Amino acid sequence: MWLKASLSAVLVLLVIAWWHEGPYFRAGRHLALAQRAMEKQDYKTAARHFTEVLKVSPNEQKIILSGAKASLLAGDPATAQKFLDLRKDYESNEEFREVNDL
Question: Which CATH class is domain 23-100?
């Protein structure tokens, strides 16, 4: 009896943990897909995935700059500017200098 109750409690805790951490798992998946798209030079797809990551981590400068870079390389300067409007770390950031030089 106690074993069934314990297993039920563990299952409930797992469901609760998954429910609360779901957005982070999805963001991690989108980040991996964005990086894979960048490697394949599919910049439009990469920018779309970086946008999804920002929904969970809107202040992550590396994601912002990577999204801007992907957008610029995809030929979409308007979306790149939307990414860059979110940045907080400017010229002191090496990745910013790389994106700024595109």
Answer: mainly alpha
Report whether 80 contacts 50 (CB < 8 A).
no
- Calpha distance 67→81 (Å, rounded): 10
* Cα 87 from Cα 62, distance rounded (Å): 9
Spatial separation of the C-alpha atoms in residues 63 and 49, rounded to whole Å: 10
CA distances from 86 to 79, 90, 93 (A): 11, 11, 14
Given this model, what pLDDT does residue 52 score? 92
Residues 54 and 60 sit within 8 Å (Cβ to Cβ): yes
Q: H or E segment at 75?
A: none
Q: What is the pLDDT of residues 9-21, one digit of tens each?
A: 766 666 665 566 6
**Number of residues that this document lists for the chain:** 102
Delimit the domains of the chain by residue range. Answer: 23-100
Residue type, 41: Q
